[in-house]
Amino acid sequence: MKRMIVTGALGQIGSELVVKLREIYGVDAVLATDIRNTTDSIEPFEVLDVMDDKCMHKLAKEFRADTMIHMAALLSATAEKNPLLAWNLNMGGLVNALEVARELNMQFFTPSSIGAFGPTTQKNNTPQNTLQRPTTMYGINKVAGELLCDYYHQKYNLDTRGVRFPGLISYVTPPGGGTTDYAVEIYYKAIEEGQYQSYIAQGTYMDMMYMPDALQAIIDLMEADGSKLVHRNAFNISAMSVEPSELAAEIQKHIPHFTLSYKVDPVRQAIADSWPNTIDSTAAREEWGFTTQYDLAKMTIDMLEKLKIKQQKKAIS
Ligand code: VAH
User: Fold this and answer.
1) Pocket test for ligand 1, best of 75, 164, 185 (most atoms within 8 A of CB)
2) β-pairing verdict for 4-7 and 259-262
3) Structure pTM?
4) Sheet harboring 206-210: ordered strands across?
5) pLDDT tens across 105-118, in order?
6) What confidence score (pLDDT) does residue 176 get?
7) pLDDT value at position 118?
8) Is 138 a catalytic residue?
9) pLDDT tens-digit readout, 144-186
10) Which is nearest to 164 in space by CA: 231, 252, 77, 107?
11) What pLDDT does 285 receive?
12) Which domains occur in the chain, in start order?
């Protein structure tokens, strides 16, 4: 990777990924793009609607990009509210990004998700290769996306790569429209209010990962020796599997008065119930050395510490 264009650069992953990539490859080597404009000084930045293939091609060509990092997508809960918009944006945007990458011979990354599995998939220690019959529009988009990226590699020899992300927890840019967002909100509410009402039921296990580990995984995969990659576009990766009361118990070690209650959202609960409890990351570890630095305890310490600083800065601004 030498010169990258990132779509969805103002999103939960994109906003931190751009910073990390610029630390490694140089500020001027990473073109951040998003459908929204921003007043943040994150130049080089361009407004880009991923449905506009001509604009995407023009920006990538003029920037002399050799790598396409396609992050723009609607997440699971939003996609269930507007499935046709999700299909058009998630699939139309992906095809445009793959076509631009093919036309300009770019290395390509886009994430899949644990959402690519469904209720008939083995729920515990979900294998790398297994049944994928997701029952959400988001999951259907992710399975189709995995197959499209494999196709572009097989048919055009495009260097496509991707991972199946678990729920990602971060303190910089709050996520929007996801099912696993409760695992982010709980930390914000713990600091702000000392209490949280979870829309996901107690005992609902989902794979999770702290954002620093997710960002490192993208970079490690993109820098890996391509000849050693068997699975390429959909590596299972995870750092932990947790359910709401376990998150609460870890937070209470630092905020003893913190309380957790439940008001289950049937839509997002149904999505969560259709996903695995735990996935098997062996292929990623074996093929490109995937590893993580943060477990639940270490993540909780860092999240609470960073959110306290964020809250203090907000209070004096
Ligand atoms: C979502 N955060 O909840 C995303 C992610 C595995 C979850 O794909 O939709």
Assistant:
1) 75
2) unpaired
3) 0.97
4) 167-169, 206-210, 240-242
5) 999 999 999 999 99
6) 84
7) 97
8) yes
9) 999 999 999 999 999 999 999 999 999 998 878 999 999 999 9
10) 231
11) 98
12) 4-166+210-236 (3.40.50.720), 168-207+239-275+293-316 (3.90.25)
Which amino acid would we find at residue 295?
D
Q: Which of 138, 171, 187, 294 is catalytic?
A: 138
Cα separation of 189 and 94, whole Å? Answer: 34
Which pair of structure tokens corresponds to residue 242?
A: 């947790």
Angle, vertex CA 196, rays to CA 193 and CA 202, nearest 5: 160
Neighbour-count burial for 200-223, b at 16+ CB within 10 Å, e otherwise: bbeebbbbbbbbbbbbebbbebbe
Residues of the chain with pLDDT under 50: none
pLDDT for the residue numbered 1: 67
Ligand 1 atom nearest to CA at 175: 2
If you write DSSP's letter for every residue of 112-175 in order, what string do you get? EEGGG--TTS--SSB-SS------SHHHHHHHHHHHHHHHHHHHH---EE-EEE-EEE-SSS--
User: What residue has token string 């009361």?
Assistant: 245
CA 136 to centroid of chain Cα atoms: 17
